[in-house]
Specification:
Layout: H1 2-9, H2 13-23, H3 80-88, E1 110-118, E2 121-129, E3 138-144, H4 151-158, H5 160-167, E4 170-174, H6 199-214, E5 217-227, H7 229-240, E6 248-251, H8 262-271, E7 284-289, H9 298-307, E8 315-322, E9 328-335, E10 341-348, E11 355-356, E12 365-366, H10 372-380
Parallel strand pairs: 3-4, 3-5, 5-6, 6-7, 7-10, 11-12
Antiparallel strand pairs: 1-2, 2-4, 8-9, 9-10
Length: 386
């Protein structure tokens, strides 16, 4: 990619295009000045428009919940030449602003703005504490947003806070700043962010332990889930910290270890990847749309295949259904002798790169799909570490 940047700065866009196409395993297009470079978009969600990103505000101690008007990225996709210039300048083109709908907090609930800092780095995060507070330690779900998203936007789109009230859960939303990745993607494809006690995995595990210590989260019922790059990062967390997270949800993501750098990340998202089998059993639920053109659907199957070798004596059961919004889907559950689902994949017909059954108040959601959030909660609460 350094060579691509050098060619772009010198104005040799044709040569730069050929090099990127070579990295992706394809051939250079005939009209590079105006063609769209879909491979480069593999690391971010949705389409790109030309905007100047506004400076990120400093977090306040407590921020109003899920504020702002619904908005989704829209606009004409950038040309290849513009994309290459953006790469040469040090980042990918930014989409339009992402925001969440205004959803008032129930009386007695809190949506805190917190920060976790360690030698491996620091991250801000939002923590939803429901008004429904049953006695004793409460289950915790750590939600990792997709590229360009914010914690507030992700909370609005997934509707997880409403489920927190229903089931008495704590929900944490770590935030990836643009300083760590220009598109606010979790860096799932970098070796330094794929192992325990290093980089982003260490920070996410650390803030999870903070919540367990300070806010009454149950260490035997802590889970992690994510969308897209966040889904890939969740898979990394399951592999790196199976003693912290007793189940994982991966929506439109990739298996842990499916890439080791930017070129292999592009290839994995375009054509699928395998990753490394888990050494420790971690119950895993996956959602993926069959029409996802950002992350190839084969990656969803790869996440399940990564989880299964560590689980023995399971039987598979497949059924088909149709969501209330009209999306047909197929569900395959791998069950133990007690009938618990230890690995489960929902393959959604015709769905793209979006959270199934999500709220249109958030970005990258498909309200027509089956309710991924509710199904993840159902799946997670089956599992508790002994």
């Amino acid at each position: 990619m350094a060579a691509v940047s050098a060619l772009t700065r010198s104005g040799k866009l044709h040569e730069a295009t050929r090099m990127i196409q070579s990295l992706l395993g394809g051939s250079a297009p005939a009209q590079t000045a105006t063609d769209d470079l879909s491979g480069v978009g593999a690391l971010i969600d949705g389409e790109y428009i030309e905007v100047t990103p506004a400076p990120e505000p400093e977090p306040e101690p407590v921020v109003p919940p899920l504020a702002q008007k619904p908005a989704k990225p829209r606009g004409r996709r950038t040309s290849l030449a513009q994309t290459l210039r953006k790469i040469a300048a040090g980042g990918m083109p930014m989409p339009g602003p992402v925001s969440g709908a205004a959803v008032p907090l129930p009386q007695g609930a809190q949506f805190l703005a917190l920060t976790h800092s360690t030698a491996q780095g620091s991250r801000g995060y939002r923590l939803y504490i429901p008004a429904n507070r049953p006695p004793g330690p409460r289950p915790l779900i750590v939600m990792l947003h997709g590229c360009t998203q914010t914690a507030e936007d992700f909370a609005a789109g997934t509707g997880m806070n409403a489920l927190a009230e229903e089931f008495g859960l704590l929900i944490a939303y770590p935030t990836q700043p643009s300083g760590a990745n220009a598109q606010k993607c979790w860096n799932w494809y970098r070796p330094e962010d794929q192992a325990r006690d290093r980089g982003e995995p260490a920070v996410i595990a650390g803030l999870t332990r903070d919540i367990q210590r300070d806010y009454g989260a149950d260490p035997t019922r802590s889970y992690v889930a994510g969308l897209s790059a966040g889904g890939a990062a969740a898979a990394v967390m399951a592999a790196a910290y199976p003693e912290v997270f007793c189940a994982v949800g991966v929506h439109s993501g990739l298996p842990a270890g499916g890439a080791r750098d930017i070129p292999s990340a592009f290839a994995a998202m375009r054509s699928g990847s395998k990753g490394r089998p888990h050494r420790t059993p971690v119950p895993t639920i996956v959602f993926h749309g069959s029409a996802d053109t950002t992350v190839h659907p084969d990656n969803g199957s790869a996440v399940i295949k990564q989880a299964l070798p560590a689980m023995k004596g399971l039987r598979a059961a497949t059924q088909r259904g149709v969501s209330a919004g009209g999306r047909s889907y197929s569900t395959t559950a791998h069950l133990d002798d007690k009938g618990r689902s230890l690995a489960e994949i929902w393959e959604i017909d015709g769905a793209g790169h979006a959270w199934a059954g999500g709220n249109s108040a958030g970005s990258y959601t498909d309200p027509k799909g089956p309710d991924a959030s509710r199904q993840m909660v159902r799946f997670f609460l089956q599992h508790q570490r002994s």
